[in-house]
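If your schedule permits, I should be very grateful for your opinion on a structural question. I would ask you to consider whether the tokens describe a fold that such a sequence might reasonably adopt. Thank you for your consideration; the sequence and its tokens are set out here.
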Amino acid sequence: MADSGQRFQALVGPYFEALHRAAFRLTRRQHDAEDLVQEVCLRAYRELRKLEALESVRGWLLRVQYRIFVDGVRKRVRSAIDATADDVSDLFASDEPGPEELTSAAYTQERLDRAWTGLTPEQRA
């Protein structure tokens, strides 16, 4: 009996390119496609005995890949919906003055400095 690495290679190896092409069509990004194929391969390795008993290994791999992709999309959509306006404002809100307030304060300080230097010593006292 061959070791599990050889059994895995014999079962999944012939379909690796098909998995990658299908993953790229789903994700449209090379890096995401590679991640998706890697996740499929991990699941296939864990289910090696089940794969050996199947008639259509390719069909199983492609179905699992599609389900992983859909689950990932649903998860991203759900997390985007769960973020409310309050959540987002907590991430970006600050008690610090913004650019407009800083500019206004600098302008006011400049005007005060000019007015101060225009006063006589008696007026400053």
